[in-house]
Specification:
The complex is a heterodimer of chains A (about 180) and B (about 140). Chain A is α/β, with parallel strands linked by helices. Chain A has 6 helices and 7 strands, in the order αβββαβαβαββαα. Chain B has about 140 residues and is mainly alpha-helical. Classes of the chains: A alpha/beta (about 180), B mainly alpha (about 140).
Chain lengths: ~180, ~140
Amino acid sequence: MWRYLLPLAGFGVLVIFFFYGLQRDPSTIPSPLIGKPAPEFSLPDVRDPNKQVSNADYRSRMYLLNVWATWCVGCRQEHEVLMQLARTSPIPMISLNWKDERALAIRWLDQLGDPYVQSAFDQEGRVAIDWGVYGAPETFLVSADGRVLHKHIAPMTLQIWEQEFLPKIAAAKPVAERAAGTGQP
Amino acid sequence: MRALLATLLMTFALGASAIDTEQLADPTLQARYDKLVTELRCLVCQSGSIAESNAALAGDLRREVRTMLRAGKTDGEIRRFMTDRYGDFVLYRPPLTPRTWLLWFAPVLLLGIGGLVAYRVISQRARLVASDPDEPEQPGRG
């Protein structure tokens, strides 16, 4: 009896192992920042080096932080979606332009449209390290009390926005604000 | 001969940190640096350490390690800096936490299971041989 049951049980364990193991994307590393205070930064503006962009200005507001660069193919891919979100979502989106060239970044925003309220220029990649960025595009959702609620690695899509971001936004927002609408695309 | 040997050793020394154009002035710091960067995983290429990666992020992380070493941070503080931002995944030697127990003890566990199975099979065989007096003691010989 055991002779037949044991291999079968072993096979069962392998099936479970692979069922869960193979569905995971090994290139997506969970962020240790989730639930923790968002790292503060103050960087020059992409468009104007004399102006500073800081997430401290968004204290007590919920905001999105999008990490992008002109050398990043996925960023080009998600840009249309970001433009759409900028039109429909009430949550401001700041951007962190990561290891890029200023002139190229400005041209990108001028030609493709600028979905961001402000864009910070992180040429050294120093702030990106604080945020645990390892591959653009990445999009963070930060709550009104300054905690990182969610991180999405890979291009933003409307499906991901609806399935991953909207529920977290709705859960974090006070009821009164929720009545005003969370921006259905 | 001695010159040849010296040249050979020099090439090895160069190869060890060929990826960096910058060296730390203090050789003990440089030695700690060389060890640390091989223990930190490159998050872009994932199967290599930041010591051997040409990815831009790996270069940034190496720069951070150098800066922290110069600032007098301990190895533990530098590792902590990395795991606070990138999680335990950046460490090639994951720490022993409840989440990694299975990872650390799986080899021992599997060895134990294997040993148990082997013990049972062998003792069963031995019993079979012992309980069958007709069987020649050394089949295949004679």
